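[job 0412] stage=fold_complex status=start
inputs:
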Amino acid sequence: MTLDDAALKSFGFIERPTKNMINIDPLQTGGILTEDARRALVEWGDGYSICDNCGGVLDLIKKPPVQKFIHEALPEFLGVDEVRITHGARESKFAVMHAIAQEGDTVILDGLAHYSSVVAAQRARLEIRKVPHSEKPDYHIDPEAYGTAIEETISETGKAPALALLTYPDGNYGNLADAKKIASVCHEYDVPLLLNCAYSVGRMPVDAKELGVDFIAGSGHKSMASCGPIGVLGVNNDNGDYSDIIFRKSPTNKNKEIELLGCTARSATLMTMIASFPEVVKRTRNWGNEVADARWFSEKLETMGLIQMGQKPHNHDLMFFEAPNLYEISTRVKKGRYFLYKELKSRNIHGIKAGLTKFFKLSTFEVGRENLSYIVDSFDEIIKKYE
Amino acid sequence: MTLDDAALKSFGFIERPTKNMINIDPLQTGGILTEDARRALVEWGDGYSICDNCGGVLDLIKKPPVQKFIHEALPEFLGVDEVRITHGARESKFAVMHAIAQEGDTVILDGLAHYSSVVAAQRARLEIRKVPHSEKPDYHIDPEAYGTAIEETISETGKAPALALLTYPDGNYGNLADAKKIASVCHEYDVPLLLNCAYSVGRMPVDAKELGVDFIAGSGHKSMASCGPIGVLGVNNDNGDYSDIIFRKSPTNKNKEIELLGCTARSATLMTMIASFPEVVKRTRNWGNEVADARWFSEKLETMGLIQMGQKPHNHDLMFFEAPNLYEISTRVKKGRYFLYKELKSRNIHGIKAGLTKFFKLSTFEVGRENLSYIVDSFDEIIKKYE
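[job 0412] stage=fold_complex status=done
writing structure:
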């Protein structure tokens, strides 16, 4: 590509095609900015804006109140001893794995783990052992299976796993496994547990000390109404001096934390997280209503012949549906498997991946009962249209 | 901290204290958003907005034109074979080091390397050998010294360094070392060279193939008028199949690149980079005028008794000054070493770190001759005021 004026016209400002649509993509519902965050975005949009008054350590900046946010508010919010900001949940997971494990060590992942947990372990050059889950429709994870996986690792490698990880909830079915029990099983073998809370921190209450987990990875862009990429990493030192290991400082650059490469998310990403924080805290207190909305929505779709997979009644806004009737329609209509996407799009609804009909996931988080009713009615209309 | 209403009032929307000031902090001048980027910021601010139409690989998204940007425009812009987006220059450097070196290998860094290069090497568990530079006032790096450092590494460890790195320009003096000659010296020993272009890509023309370097790390928030954190990583395969190594895919998740943890900078950060790109390309073509502005500014300050360190005449907007007269004033005035910061602040000028008087750096990039004249006059006024 020659970078002449004609070629450069492909870039510049570009509109977001889904703007103003009702978005039920699980990736999107928890990351919609609050009004305060929208203002912060413009205010702090310039590259390094947050560094205007930095003395050399991002998380100790006093103006704006980064220090207060990271060292006082977030530890309370997550129920941990220490927090740092990262570029996202996957970067939080990699940082923990890379810091506490040696190359070749084993990490235990739940069988429903997000691909980024797998890839983080591969980047850290660790062996992966998965904890199995039950089959369709429950996809249940038995806490005792963590013990089995740990014992198998010890018997096969002669060494305990360096870490165990649980996806809470998992990103396919929205199942919330018994984290407290799993932490307790892992701790019987002195294996620390990392909770991947990309879909929970910022949506629902999560407290590491209450659950007894050692590390929490959260996602700002997924669940904390923040402009991405940004995440949080919380460390609970109840079972070891973990924060000393993970946040160890450079021997040559004494105020720079090695695992964070000195500093991480800055400016608009961090300032939108700070801007949304009051509302994010408050919305986690409203979690009961969100779960009620999810259950109501699930019941409505099931009356139309769709089947919700995973825990039932469901405990999270992320839900996976099997839709044999929509699949059947797709086999005989002109637009084929794209018909559902197009029908929903024509009704201003986005978020079920184009081409999916038989299985798909969606999220009801903060969509609100009115829009959820509209979506339910839309499914009803679409199904009746092709019957 | 109890997260009650009173505590939460510390957060929410916060104003940027330096808004509307003339900012000459080298961190800030190249990261100021263009108008298109400011619009993109609002349009794409929601967490995962860019993923609306993602098929599983960030850099292959067609709508918005991410694929065209990363696979066509940026390779041309950087003079490389492959480009990926990262969270910043430091993350680009770590990705290269972590992917191509083994733990315990040596990396050669220029003696003026940014701390983040040091910390990236420490995170990758590499040994660091520094190439010395000449002393004050030039801080010159002799290309042949890279050969010496490589030979010393081989003789001491029995193994060639895995990588050499040059900071181009360095972040203290704004010196542009002879990258082409250094690349040639490194290649005599088959050692690849990474150019840290955090202060060059997006400000001035940089072409990896022309310079013969193997890797380029650039910074969106520092020099490409982007909302941070975001960076670029360019790979030139002329001397090895480096992109196959660095962008290797997961054996289990076949379309996910391990070293990037699947995907990196998303949404507003990437969309502001795309939005600013046409203007960024054009401004690099105006680099001659920026250098002329820097030289003019340097000469003006030198007539007042300040001394510019580093290359002279200077070749970059980032400049380091020694100011014995301002230091002398600081020893006898009431506000002590904060007097300069306060005097400049009262004149709406920000960017020289609070408390510095004897040595400081600044940047003239895109400040414009009118504002530069105003800054020159302000220094003149301040010096005369305390004489």
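[job 0412] summary: Residues 7-30+286-386 of chain B form a domain with the Aspartate Aminotransferase, domain 1 fold (CATH 3.90.1150.10).
[job 0412] exit 0
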